[in-house]
Batch of 2 targets.
Target 1
Amino acid sequence: MMNKRTFLRLSAAVMGSRFVAPMMAWAGADKITNWAGNIEYSTDRLQSSASVEQVRDFVRKQSRLKVLGTRHCFNTIADSKDLFLSVKELNEAVTVDPAAHTVTVDAGVTYGKLSPILHEKGWALHNLASLPHISVAGACTTGTHGSGEKNGNLATAVAGLEFVTASGDMVRLSREKDGDTFQAAVVGLGALGVITKITLDVQPAFQMRQYVYENLPLRQMSDQFDAIEASAYSVSLFTDWQKQRINEVWLKSRMGSGQAWEARPEFFGARLATKNLHPIAELSAENCTEQMGVPGPWYERLPHFRMGFTPSAGKELQSEYFVPRPHAVEAILAVERMRDQVSPHLMISEIRTIAADNLLLSPCYKQDSVAIHFTWKQDWPAVRNVLPTIERELAPFKVRPHWGKLFTMSPKELRSVYGDRLQAFIKVARNLDPGGKFRNDFLDTNVFGA
Ligand SMILES: Cc1cc2nc3c(=O)[nH]c(=O)nc-3n(C[C@H](O)[C@H](O)[C@H](O)COP(=O)(O)OP(=O)(O)OC[C@H]3O[C@@H](n4cnc5c(N)ncnc54)[C@H](O)[C@@H]3O)c2cc1C
């Protein structure tokens, strides 16, 4: 269960300062908060390391610490009572191996910084999350994903990992050589050490077009779900669960792949938008990636939000639940029936598909999945009340929460959905970090205590 003792000290001061002072907080002039401002971390002691040697030296000397990425998680997974280490200055190296189709990057780099460099060199990643502002290491370690029924989450692109363990030693793991340990380490929840370098699969750069349709009848969604999801490289359905409709359908289509299509005015009863839209239609689309079929590079179409702008709504909370793809429609309709409980607290929901993978703690382990996401108004007491209802309704589908978003499922429930994989992960973690240097309350409660 979410640790309620350390979680969410929703002081008015933090809530109020969110927009004016996040960087001040980051710089130590104020308490350090996560991106959304709903969490004030339990220490403001922050050390930054700009080289692997500095990281090793620092880790050796500390008894307990957490690495902080770009602070985009909504729960306490990144929190520390002791000390933070930031590797965001470790972000320069981008080394492409054209023969292996991989790129090796410093772990502090964000997708927003990496992607244009990669594109310039003629390469692309298979997918991106809704925003490019997040660090590669922080995203992969929580199983962050985009959409597309044939696309695994972002961590499935990881071909190799280099990290500093609790003893200050370097460990290098590769997908090819390190089998089970590698599969445990990639979605590592920040529990195994300080990731300093990541090797990712790349493919030749490609162009995309993005189209948005409005008002897809719910009935079409349920009758034609498979056809809708198969209709583009990446498909996102946005709904407020009102009026028996999907408010917006975002289709991201690859050009030159045989999958690109000319937009028809109608899509399963939805109408082609006549201007760029924000997922929350009332908000300005200024911070959104280009739509209306304008061709552009992969990294400017796969995310919904543009680098350099505030993604999403800003002042919000997020939760997300994964269920097996075969149960997608049943699960979506179960949430739709809860609309009167959900909608008062909701900004928007997004439904995405993710391909199965073999990463131990991935919510999509060996299971093509659908993810039902909730962007909530920033009212934790209200959201905390509604989450157990959603979790209960989705429980028959072996629901799994996003590791970096808000949930109230108990450790027992997590144990029941992750089964033996949780024990296998703990074994690897104990081996690399016997004294629990990289553990915190979230991990102790939800993983090690589970
Ligand atoms: C506006 C918004 C939109 C989002 N959209 C999506 C989306 O489309 N899809 C999705 O799946 N998620 C999404 N998320 C969630 C986000 O992708 C995850 O929270 C992700 O983990 C954020 O990465 P971070 O670097 O900010 O992590 P942080 O919150 O800083 O840290 C997360 C974890 O990573 C660990 N960590 C970070 N760096 C390292 C390192 N170098 N070595 C070891 N451990 C490390 C931390 O210790 C912690 O355990 C969104 C979040 C926001 C705020």
Note: Residues 1-28 have pLDDT under 50 and may be disordered.
Target 2
Amino acid sequence: MEDAKNLNKAYDPKQVEEKLYKMWTENGYFTPEADYSKEPYTIVIPPPNITGQLHMGHALDNTIQDILIRWRRMQGYSTLWLPGTDHASIATEAKIVDSLAKEGKTKYDLGREGFLRKAWDWKEEYGGRIINQLKKLGCSCDWTRERFTLDEGCSKAVSKVFMSLYEKGLIYRGERIINWCPSCKTSISDIETIYDDEKGHFWHIKYQIKDLDDFIEIATTRPETMLGDTAVAVHPEDERYKHLIGKTVILPLLNKEIPIIADEYVDMEFGTGAVKITPAHDPNDFEVGLRHGLPMPRVMNDDGTINELGGKYCGLDRYAARRQIVSDLQESGLLVIVKDHDHSVGHCQRCNTTVEPILSKQWFVKMKPLAEPAIEVVKNGTIKFVPDRFSKIYFNWMENIQDWCISRQLWWGHRIPAYYCSDCGEIIVTIDPQETCGKCGGKLKQDEDTLDTWFSSALWPFSTLGWPDNTEDLKYFYPTSVLVTGYDIIFFWVARMIFSAMENMKEEPFKYVYIHGIVRDSEGRKMSKSLGNGIDPLDVIEKHGADALRFNLISGNSPGNDMRFFWERVEAFSNFANKIWNASRFVLMNIDDDFDYENILHSYRDALTTADYWILSKLNRLKREVTENMEKFELGIAAQKIYDFIWFEFCDWYIELVKPRLYSEEAESKTIAQATLTYVLRDSIKLLHPFMPFITEEIYMHLPQTSHSIVISQWPQYDEAFDASSQERNMEIIMEAIKGIRNIRAEMNVVPSRKSNTIIISDREEVINAMMEGTPYIQKLAYSSEVILKTTKENIPDGAVSIIIEGAEIFLPLEDLIDKEKEIERLNKEKERLEKELERVKQKLSNEKFLSKAPAAVIEEEKDKEKKYSELMVKVLDRLKGLE
Ligand SMILES: [Zn+2]
Ligand SMILES: [Zn+2]
């Protein structure tokens, strides 16, 4: 497509990335059709929050998805990567509440409608930010199909699911103990509650038994909840208390009579064996309350203050009330003892406020019946977790699942499609808004609450394809192929998508769940705002380009495992890009614009040299292995293999090996070398394309015979005809010889301009033949003036250095190439240095203090040093002996 010669001198990602991304989208490469002559391959993006900014986790997650999508697209699938964003109910609402607070306003000042207008404005302004950042990363999403969890279609899907679950009795409204965040002033689900161990206390309190000169002692970690006590419970078999069952105690401070009841829930062995029962403020007490028909007074307001039922404590914040209550109890002599006690306390995932378990009327999804098919579909392998170990975590959670509280006391989100009649109490759940009660004609009022954000994202794999309408996209692209996500949202999202899909689609939402780890900083710490150790992917792209960032995130990464971020590695991959660029420039400078390399390679098949066969055979196997690795989601391994091939085999060896042919007068050999170079370059950058999309496209466009983008080029396929194992082996023998000779020359400080004879001795015919063919390579790359092949060890010059390789012995008469005096002097200096180093290491390793205090890795490092220095010492002494 472009002139082969005009590849810029140096690779500059900035000049290339934006231009190419624009070209890709303008040509519609990312927009597939429901083409029944092809197989579909679908990924739905984990929708980032509209409040979000691209962080390293997104960068990793989306790089993985883009690699899979680009690879399958090249394989000929009709690939859809469906993008979109999540309205992120609680996070977005909090952002807007914060910005209002700066103007001195609350959301109530604006009212529901005004607040929602503000939220949509905010979404219009900032909601697209993360989408643009994904484009910078090179994500080949189909932006024409972009969705939003609050858009019309997704909202329709939400109402439809809500209604159908309600009709089946799988959604119900009820008073239950939920997790309440007094700061966000909303209910939150169990998984939005983060439990941490905290230092706390057990306050032991005496409750006076009515009409008896006796007390019953209970202990609590939250004394303020005693204002809501409606009973004291003991175990029915507890001999200490049997005679008290049915009597009443006087609740201190409020001076209220409450009964002593018997319930098997009470653990006789724990504490005094008597417990206070606060049904509205504790999930277990709630159950006890239900069993015994106890009153369930709620003594706390939504903001965590005590309400009017709390008597003189009314209006106090829960912790102020706690202090006051403890001091009052102490004064009245009812506080027996205070014991330190570590216990686990729930915190709001969003704001870290201590969560209050509180009785509240909320909407719930009945989980047990929904969990069953969702467990089955993973058990029978229809959905596979990669790596498999995450399925255990999934089962464990699904098998112990609790009902899901889905109502939130927020405004930004899907409003619950339930309407209440204030006259007759009728509840109507419907997709179409209703104003009058069908039963009594009274006025209906819609539920004020919205749904948990995850309720809509649970429908994402099918709502985005058009469900509940039976669209072409839904028919063709569903079920999706793989879901890529981090292990932190298996419960929030993955599990919920699975049961939602099984319930509504009767078919799995995806076939694979690829779970990746998190990106940590170079010291292995989580990247966080408070530590200030976060690295902005956009900074990395700015400095080194998107390709280097992507390659860094993938190479060495394996499913399910965390990785560390090192700037040095990004730099190394930026060097890799430069290496490819320079190699490509070299190839392109040596061929014509219309060079028909593929045909030439085909017609001159019999005239290939050992080196040509070798690189083609290696490349051929690479195609097979990389494809196999990709199929097993071993992207990191695939990346490493492509890197090694391009860097070492292609650039370091093959290009060097063919240079003499490119400059020679032998037309045929030259043409074959050019054709092989071009072909290998083309297929290697194709293999690399999913990982480094930009640089590979820029090079590909400059290759001869290119009529379209690399994005839609064909994925390189393994071809048995390219297998050349005997030539490969011969080439490896030659390479061994060259490496051996170069090493010893380097060790002995022989400059490349001083050439020496090379005598190779082998009694194996195939080795002699290989070396004969390799003679020009040995001459060029191992600086040999003449290569002499022999079958026996005769007439070897005195003092020649020898190298043993597999199947042969090589002798180099280097004696006259080096300045003997100078070399002895250098070696003596080296000997002195090594002696000092060895002494230092040995001293360290015999130091008891060091050995007992240093980390194992440091000690290991010192031992390695000792070994390395000792080995070098042997070599130096050997060399000295040889020279003297
Ligand atoms: Zn909160
Ligand atoms: Zn009514």
Note: The longest strand covers residues 193-209.
